[in-house]
Amino acid sequence: MPSKAKSNTIAIKPTYKIIGNNRYVKPYIFEFSTFAKGRWLGRRVIDVLLAEFGGYDLNYWEHAIANSNILVNNARTHQDYVFRNSDRLVHRTHRHEPPIQGGLQFVGETDELFAVCKPSSWPMHPCGGYRFNTLTAILSHEPLVNDQPELSTVHRLDRVTSGLIVLAKSARIAGEVSKEIRENSTQKVYLARVRGRFPTMVPDLPELTVEQLRAPTESEEVQRELGAACTVSQREEYTDTQTSVKKKKPNPETQEVEYTGRVASPASVPEGTEAVGWGMDGDLLLVRCPITVANYREGIHACDRTGSTGKLALSAFRNCGYCAEDDTSLVECYPHTGRTHQLRLHLQLIGTPIANDPCYGGELFYGDSERLQLARGVARRLLKQKQASGGRLLHHLPHLHHLCDEDSGGVSEDTAEDAQAESRIETSIAPVVERIDTESDEEYLVRSCRYCQPGAGVISPEDEALVHCDGIWLHALRYSGKNWSFETQEPEW
Q1: Long-range contacts: 18-25, Cβ < 8 Å, 24+?
Q2: pLDDT along the chain (493 residues), means of 10
Q3: Which of 58, 144, 361, 476 has a beta carbon 3.0–4.6 Å from 164's, enabling a disulfide?
Q4: DSSP 193-242
């Protein structure tokens, strides 16, 4: 039985609107579907909805159940239904996607590959609050060239990262290029703008030789013997005798890239090799530190300085210059492995985080005081909305409290705009709308939508987007592989 959440739209083609630098999607009827999680089993539907999806209050969920917008196993349900194994939950709603900024640029193509430049703020694929405002959906609905073929993703960039995306014109080519990446046969170059002067040494970490930095540890060699091109999920079983290993066929669109160096056996690991350290290779600063998952739910990763649980990660950096005006350095980045958030974490580890990366040591909206003040005003109003409703906001906003904490008065200090909005706080979670007997399911969903009700006083998705980190100073500049190479223009920053 599938375990991943699925979703679909109900027979609709997206309608896009461009206003200034922002791209919007016309709201649409959306159906979210997921199988019951283990922690749901034995619990009532209403209790699970309140605990897991707190963006709506009790009244909303009661009416959604009564009006068949909550289904279990494609059938009407009731509040006291108790989840069982393999139950399928469906929630139908009127969806408003957050806007994204900028436009997609065509970089080039070969007979087998197609390259584009992605702005920051663009997700690669449907995730979270995004479905049609994604790179794959927009490319599908708005081709960049005549006779554009169906394209398959080969690799990914974070939503907040800009730069080069290489796509394949067939599933076969996608598999081949993904194999190049897994086998470390591609060269990737990024640009980052980091806070402070880029260092020439890292006194907090052990200094290692280039040979030690590039060599796998003994535990990493064991992993290699279990399958160098496999992800952790593909190495489901491992016994001390190394006789029981299950592998799944890799999916080139979803697999993680593992380090696959040139070392063939543990005997070649230099004595004294450590999992964490730094060293110089000419004008390149090499940083070695495993990456581990710190929070699966939030997608947050961390450097594993003990070297006990993380995956090997090796990065190289070249200083391109320092700007005293804003105290930042421009750095070329060369990831030798493909761990999630690797460059961001290694730059934070050596004391020069990406300046505007709030997740890993930087500051939200670094150097943009106007945007920061605007975001703080919206953040105060959103927190009041949250406090009034007793629940969570519709979209996850991880930096809300940080924005208000940085302000001298926190959430209690109101601007004139906030004072005018305060009278609407009680209605900031839209009131429940009773259904009219003659209206269809779709008509009722639109009329009862928390964002569409006139006079409800709900802060719009556009305002909520103002407090999101919509981009960081990390740009994928150039990718090169066997018989192919693509490069974008340098970013404006």
Answers
A1: 21/101, 21/102, 22/99, 22/100, 22/101, 22/462, 23/99, 23/100, 23/101, 23/103, 23/133, 23/138, 24/97, 24/99, 24/133, 24/462, 25/97, 25/131, 25/132, 25/133
A2: 45 87 93 93 96 79 90 96 97 91 97 97 90 96 95 94 97 93 88 97 93 72 45 37 34 34 33 78 96 86 89 95 97 94 98 96 92 85 66 52 54 38 35 80 85 67 79 97 95 95
A3: 476
A4: EEESPPPS--TTS-B--HHHHHSPPHHHHHHHHTTTT--GGG-----TTS
